[in-house]
Fold this protein.
Amino acid sequence: MKTIYVDNNATTRVAPEVLEVMLPYLNEFYGNPSSMHSFGGNVAHKIKEARAKVASLINASPDEIMFTSCGTESDSTAIHAAISSVPDKKHIITSRVEHPAVKNLFEHLSKKGYRVTFVPVDRKGMLDLDYLYNSLADDTAIVSIMWANNETGMIFPVQEISQVIKTKGIVFHTDAVQAVGKLPIDVSKSEIDMLSISGHKIHAPKGIGALYVRKGTRFSPFLIGGHQEGGRRGGTENVAYIIGIGKASELAATHLEEMATRVEKLRDKLENELLKRIPNAIINGDTENRLPNTTSISFEYVEGESILLMMDELGICASSGSACTSGSLEPSHVLRAMGVPFTAAHGSIRFSLGIYSTEDEIDFIVEKLPLIIENLRTMSPFWK
Ligand code: PLP
C-alpha cells in the first residue's frame, strides 16, 4: 500500500540530498570540531558552512545562529534567556494558541510565580492585537508569539508586533518552527530578538534545531558547559545533523517559490473539492492568512480519530485536532481558543502538504474521504 503523507506539519521526510551530505560525518569524518588537528578542523569548517546556510534562509548573520537539539529546546532557551536576564520582571506574555513547547513552559512559569498573559484569538484564529498591546507592563520580561500556527496554519503579524514591542524595550521571541521553509523570512526587516527553528519540519532529521539570537540581545546559556556555540550552548556539536539542517535550509530557500505556487494550489484543490463533496464541512481559520500548505477542516458530527483510523487503512496520514487525554477526546486548545463549536472541533482534521505532495495523492484523498465521512455519519447518533 502506498503511503500518502499529508502530515508535514508533524514532521517531514529527510530529503535525499540532506542524508547524502550527512552520512560521511557519521562514519568517515568523525573528528571533534574542537580538536586542534585538521581532521577535526575540517569538521569545524563544515559547521561554519551550515551556520551560514541557516542564517541565509532568514537573512541573519551566521554568528546570530546557535544550534540546538530541536524546536522545543530553541523555545525554552529563548524564553529562559529572556527571563533570567531581567530577574526582577515577573510578567510574561504569549498567545492562547501556542504549541505546547511554549504553552506548557508558560504554564510552568506561572506556577513559579510569573504573571502570565495569554492573548486570545478570535473565531478565525486571528490574534487580538489590542489585547496584546494593552497587556504590556513595566515588568514585562518577554513577549513570545508564534509566527504560524501548527494546527490551522494561521499566520500572525510578528514583524509588526516586534516593532511595537521594541519601543517598550521588551524582548520579543517568535516560534517560527512552522513558518520557516514555508514563508519567506527576513529578520532584518523586523525587530525580532529571538526566533526558533526546527530541522525536522524542513526535511532535516529529528533532533536538530536552531535559534536566531539578534546581535546585542541579552542572553544567558541554558546548557552551561564548554565553549561551543560561542558559549551559548555547551556540549560537543551534533555534527552530522548540523550539516543536515544546513543543507535543508539551502534546499528550503529554493523551495519557497514552489510552496507558494504548486503546493498552495494543491492545498486549495484538496480543500475546495472536499467542501464541494462533503456537507457540513467547515474550514478552521482565516483562509486569507494561512500557511500555503495547511488546511484544518471540521467534519461535523463525526470523530476526528475515527476519520484518521479509516484514512490510515488506505495509507493516508493526517492529524486530528483533538488530543486523547485520559480516555476522553478533548478538542485541541487551539480550536477551543477559537471557539469552534464542540460538534465541529471533534471532527477536525489537519492536512499539511509538502514539496513531495503530488496531484495524484490529492485526487486519491478527494475520492476516498467523502465515502469515509458518509459511512461514519450513518453510525453517528447526531447525524440526521
Ligand atoms: N513549535 C511549533 C509551532 C511546532 O509545530 C513544533 C512541533 O510540532 C514545535 C515547536 C516543537 O518542535 P520540535 O519537535 O523540534 O521540538
